[in-house]
Design brief:
The chain starts with 17 loop residues before the first strand and ends with a helix. It has a four-stranded parallel sheet. It has a three-stranded parallel sheet with strand order 2-1-3. With 240 residues, it is of the alpha/beta class. It has two domains: 119 residues, 3-Layer(aba) Sandwich (Arginase, Chain A); 120 residues, Ureohydrolase domain (Arginase, Chain A), CATH 3.40.800.10. The mean pLDDT is 93.
């Protein structure tokens, strides 16, 4: 299924500006699994949305959106899965297309960032998330969903927003100044607004969104929901 059920005229790979890559993978999930079903659910729901954007006053799909076949999960482990993601995103970038990856758990983002870093050496990453994901490893894997931000921070500048759950080790890592972290409480209180977050970003940008950045009232169906999250308008306002 193509995202938005868009007509072939605007969904061919050759003509599309945006390439959607579904990655139904949740092998390292540690609480509630099921995010592997996310890409299929998003694509199915997208067929029932209006294609006119009321904010931009245009039909944005006319830029072209192509959906690739789902990337098959690699049961050998997260390192092998990341290699598959990296290869596929690099392929998309080689055509100067804009990749849009649908997970799946958050661990897959590191493979995409690796490909982006090779194509755009000055890339920085904005992570919207409830969890810091800055562990050096988790359950024996340095490529766990709980370590994805740590791996990203090792290769490019990282800015986090919406954080409200972390370990003592992660808090210490943040204090070392190796990442810029904006906590959900501060954002909601107005102490750390959109301007400060945007000022912390430079160069080309890759945005990775873990849906648990949203409050469970708006997004209960995540692997590790956390209370006190951002609203839909908070997230959309930041992206603007």
């Amino acid at each position: 299924m193509n995202y938005g059920d868009i007509d072939e005229t605007y969904s061919s790979f050759a003509e599309a500006a945006f390439i959607v890559l579904p990655v139904p993978y949740d092998l390292t999930s540690t609480y509630q699994s099921g995010s592997r079903r996310g890409p299929g659910a998003i694509l199915e729901a997208s067929a029932n949305m209006e294609l006119y954007d009321e904010e931009l006053k245009k039909e944005t799909y006319l830029a072209g959106v192509h959906t690739l076949h789902s990337l098959e999960a690699d049961a050998r482990g997260p390192a092998e899965m990341l290699a598959s993601v990296r290869e596929q995103i690099a392929h998309v970038l080689s055509f100067d297309k804009i990749p849009v990856m649908l997970g799946g758990e958050h661990s897959i983002s590191f493979g995409a960032v690796q490909a982006m870093k090779k194509k755009y050496p000055q890339v920085s990453v904005l992570q919207l998330d409830a969890h810091a994901d800055l562990r050096d490893s988790y359950q024996g894997s340095p490529y766990s969903h709980a370590a994805v931000a740590r791996r990203i921070a090792e290769i490019c500048p990282l800015v986090q927003a919406g954080i409200r759950s972390l370990s003592a080790d992660e808090a210490a890592f943040i204090k070392e100044g190796k990442v810029r972290t904006f906590f959900a409480d501060d954002i909601l209180a107005g102490n750390d607004g959109r301007e400060k977050i945007c000022e912390s970003i430079s160069g080309d940008l890759y945005v990775t969104i873990d849906l648990d950045v949203l409050d469970p009232a708006a997004m209960p169906s995540t692997g590790t929901p956390e209370p006190g999250g951002l609203s839909w308008k908070d997230v959309v306002g930041l992206l603007r």
